[in-house]
Specification:
By secondary structure, the chain is an alpha+beta fold. It folds into two domains: about 10-120, Rieske [2Fe-2S] iron-sulphur domain (Rieske Iron-sulfur Protein), CATH 2.102.10.10; about 150-349, Naphthalene 1,2-dioxygenase Alpha Subunit, Chain A, domain 1, CATH 3.90.380. The chain is built from six helices and 19 strands. The longest helix has 26 residues, at about 275-300.
Length: about 350
């Protein structure tokens, strides 16, 4: 497993936060794939993103303020336009000290706000200042206010975090709870998988009989679990005409740290009423994964050769194939060709 920033997925949209993370006139700091980012919302409501480093003395612009469509650096008051990143003012200059400030620029990142989700495009070419040829992923149900929102920083490369997220065989060992799974409930499972845009999905199915938590929703739940690059996992659960959407974004901070953010949207009354219980369970899950990641690092420090088996690790293999094809298609300037083929996978968990 590579542990370098060069192993990140580029020329793609990354999840940067929820709409209510950024109020009007506010600046917040993000770091995505090694890029320091100032995420802000102008007074007219538009969201923007620029590199969070002032080119003058490297102060973080996110610690500054918004003024009339510019971001003002907290160190010396230099101001940069939120649309083009060009420097519009250097307060220390005196009359007659001519300087073309417009030649000084801060990198601007393309940004889109779809429903409740904010996306930032991270290009491999740091000079990129155009319009991306692809759109952010669409999640029509991810609107309004989230019912549950939790996040955690994992001490690992994003690749290990993503593979851990899609690993179907660790649940009875890492997530042992009476209400979820136990070692004694392990049985064989068979699930149909299909290629999807920039990823794949476990096709719609009834949840496993040893998944007690689903029973809390009542009725006959049908769930579909999907993954797409760079690191988005969703599970959409339908119970009659009601929906629960679990949206999980696994986002590289740098080469050794990854943010995982799990957000639930729902119009299901039982889900909202059970929010304290479900939130507690989801929070426990993430922290159990974080504890295992820390244990895993003890072995990874020795740079071992790792194994992936069929069929339990096939999703992990697909992830590596998707990344390679994405990088190759970008380098060759062609359409992405999904390497995933429809297949039934079998494992015990």
């Amino acid at each position: 497993m590579a542990d370098k920033a060069s192993d990140f997925v580029f020329d793609i949209w990354y999840f940067a936060g929820l709409s209510n993370d950024v109020a009007r006139g506010q600046l917040v700091r993000r770091e995505i794939a090694g890029e320091p980012i100032t995420l802000g919302r102008n007074e007219d409501g538009t969201v923007f993103a620029m590199r969070d480093v002032c080119p003058h003395r490297a102060a973080p612009l996110s610690s500054g303020c918004l003024k009339s469509g510019t971001v003002e650096c907290p160190y010396h008051g230099w101001r940069f336009g939120i649309e083009d990143g060009a420097c519009q003012e250097i307060p220390a200059l005196c009359e007659g000290q001519n300087m073309d400030t417009q030649k000084i620029k801060v990198r601007i990142f393309p940004t889109q706000e779809n429903g409740a989700l904010i996306w930032v495009y991270i290009a491999a070419d740091k000079r990129f200042a155009g319009h991306p040829k692809i759109s952010p992923p669409a999640f029509p149900f991810a609107t309004g206010r989230a019912v549950i929102d939790d996040n955690l920083t994992l001490n690992c490369h994003v690749g290990h975090a993503v593979i851990g997220l899609m690993d179907p065989a660790h649940d009875p060992y890492v997530h042992r709870q009476w209400w979820w799974r136990s070692e004694h409930s392990i049985h064989e499972k068979s699930k149909a998988f299909e290629p999807r845009e920039r990823g794949f999905a476990m096709a719609s199915h009834s949840p496993s009989s040893n998944s007690f938590a689903y029973k809390l929703l009542g009725g006959k739940p049908i769930t579909e679990i999907a993954f797409q690059l760079p690191g988005i996992r969703t599970e959409e659960i339908k119970v009659g005409d009601k929906t629960v959407l679990s949206f999980t974004a696994v986002t590289p901070i740098d080469a050794t740290h990854t943010q995982i953010r799990q957000i639930f949207f729902s119009d299901h009354l039982a889900f909202k009423m059970l929010k304290p219980i479900i939130a507690s369970g989801a929070r426990k899950f993430l922290r159990q994964d974080a504890d295992m990641v820390d244990l895993q690092q003890m072995g990874l420090r020795h740079d071992p050769t790792l194994m992936l088996i069929e069929d339990a690790d096939t999703q992990a293999k697909w992830y590596h194939q998707l990344k390679r094809e994405w990088a190759k298609s970008r380098a060759e300037g062609r359409e992405f060709k999904n390497p995933v083929k429809a297949k039934i996978l079998r494992w015990r968990s």
